[in-house]
Amino acid sequence: MNDLNISLAIADDHRAVRQAFRNAFSRFGFLSVAFEAENGKDLIAELSRQQPDVVLLDIKMPEVNGIEALKIIHEKFPTVKILILTAYFDEVYVAECLQYGINGYLTKNMDILDIVNAIKMAFNNEVYLTNLLMDSHLKSYIVKHKKNMNTVLPEFTCEELKILELMKLEKTTDEISHIMHLSKRSIELKRDKMKEKANVKTIGGLLLYCLKRGFIE
């Protein structure tokens, strides 16, 4: 029996888009849309009253846009998982969003099953990033904007680097645990240790840090 239940919020300034995704998600019994918002201001206001498990957040919205809303959510509602869901794939947006702890950056033309998979990963505090890390434009942007390369880099163990590679391949904590024959708790502790070494707070930030510095490709 599947006891999975994930509540969602959809923030997009186009009513037709919100309705289309609401209808699509209704096919999956474990998904429910708690509320919709047509801009970042309304989203933040509603989050102060109720906090769904996952927010699907568009970037270009009136009043308070998605980037501004993301920063506020990251500060005020840190337990809420965020998936950027937008028509725009922009390297600058992606890099900025990763620094604020998003659980994935999705485009609206993706297959609905991939979007649902990303929602499930976000719910489990995983990060859906394979579609980003395989993008040549994003890789080029990161290479051009490497920072602090003259500073002393942290030393990651072979085991930690293996975990990073598996994270990049979109493996869940349970899958990494099985592949590496380590407990789930051990994987979580090693992941936290890597974030500490890199001086970042989120998994997305860790992956971006390691991409910039060549630990993963």
From TrEMBL:
This is Response regulatory domain-containing protein. Transmembrane segments: none annotated. InterPro entries: CheY-like_superfamily (IPR011006), EvgA-like (IPR051015), NreC/VraR/RcsB-like_REC (IPR058245), Sig_transdc_resp-reg_C-effctor (IPR016032), Sig_transdc_resp-reg_receiver (IPR001789). Pfam families: Response_reg (PF00072). The modification 4-aspartylphosphate is found at D58. It comes from Niastella koreensis. PANTHER family: HTH-TYPE TRANSCRIPTIONAL REGULATOR YHJB-RELATED. Keywords: DNA-binding, Phosphoprotein. The lineage of its organism: Bacteria, Pseudomonadati, Bacteroidota, Chitinophagia, Chitinophagales. Residues 7-123 form the Response regulatory domain.
